[in-house]
Amino acid sequence: MNFVILDLEWNGAYSKKSHKFVNEIIEFGAVKVDEQFNILDSFSMLISPQIGKKLNSRVAQLTHITTEELMDSHNTFTHVLSKFRKFLGDSVLLTWGTSDILTLMENCKYYLGEEKLSFMTTYCNLQSYCEYMLGHNDKSRQMGLSTCAEQIGVSSEGLELHRAFDDAMFSLLCFKELFDFSKIKEFIEVANDEFYRKITFKNTVLYDVRNPLIDKKEFYICCDKCGKKARKKSKWVVKNRSFRAQFKCNKCRREFEGRITFRLKYEGVTVDRRVVEKNSSASKEKTKCVFSILKKQNSNSEK
Ligand SMILES: [Zn+2]
Question: Ligand 1: distance of its center to the CA of 223 in Å?
């Protein structure tokens, strides 16, 4: 089994054709390795943009790529993609997080009218794999590549980060450090219909208490010190899309804020509970009382 780690750079450009912004890919960088991490081949190509002729300043600053360089490459997306297709072959495609593969899909749709990456047979989200290997359990916060590298002592020395090929190399170094053949198998997905449904699923935060997907039984908070259920001292309010209320742990004699976030994911609804020390983030943002909505809903159902 061979692995291809891919990284892309793109530029946000407004398309007059489709009347929307497109993340136009301007650079492909990839490296191919075998199971022993021998480098078999590498891939690095720039693309002359066709939608946004000028790089936006943030991208130019981050990548140090110039518009002239891109224009001088005389490569179209379609040309680079066909080269990459051959490069990939039947290897497993890996990207750090899903944004690169989603952007690749977006460009394939724009230029070729194809919804799926017909040339890809198997895919692995390297970020999910590394998070798993490092026991990163906070599903609401994704781990960045630099954070991962820091944790495992992988240095980016000599690499020019935010350029596609070097970012792919940096991802490879982390992958190599955390490689476990029996574990990686569980993260390799076959690119079938279900895979595309899952990868394009838009996760949403549910914060309307009337939403039937929100289970009222989930509205509780346990003390983070002793684990006992805490006593609610205030009404639930919605703030920054999470439900919040004041709590007291009778055993530990401490008061804190409890926060609950419901997320609708492809796999179902996840419930995230947090305990926030009092006065740790006193903010004056507008709050919306949900208790009244709950009551109203109850009175409606009694009718
Ligand atoms: Zn306690």
Answer: 5
Pair of tokens at residue 69: 């360089």
CA atoms lying within 13 Å on the CB side of residue 179: 14
Q: Report the alpha-carbon distance of residue 128 to residue 249 in Å, rounded.
A: 35
How close is the Cα of 273 to the center of ligand 1, in Å? Answer: 15
For the chain, domain boundaries? 3-200, 205-302
From ligand 1's centre to the CA of 277, what distance in Å? 12
Provide the percentage of residues in the chain whose pLDDT is more than 70.
Answer: 91
260 CA from centroid of ligand 1 (Å) = 18
Query: Residue 128 phi/psi, 5° resolution?
Result: -60, -45
53-57 contacts at long range (C-beta below 8 A, 24 or more positions apart): 55/11, 55/26, 56/11, 56/12, 56/13
| pLDDT (tens digit per residue) in 100-138 | 999 999 999 999 999 999 999 999 999 999 999 999 977
**Ion ligand 1: residues, Cβ under 5 Å:** 223, 225-226, 249, 251-252
22 vs 14: CA distance, rounded Å: 6
Measured distance CA(293)–CA(210) in Å, rounded:
8
Bridge partners of 218, per DSSP, are none
- pTM, two decimals, is 0.81
Q: Let me know if domain 3-200 sits in CATH 3.30.420.10.
A: yes
Cα-to-centroid distance, 248 and ligand 1 (Å)? 8
Going from the Cα of 282 to the center of ligand 1, the distance in angstroms, rounded, reads: 22
Position 282 pLDDT exceeds 50: no
For residue 295, how far is its CA from the centre of ligand 1 (angstroms)?
30
CA 286–ligand 1 middle distance (angstroms): 29
> How far does the centroid of ligand 1 lie from the alpha carbon of residue 280, in Å?
18
Q: What is the DSSP letter of 270?
A: E
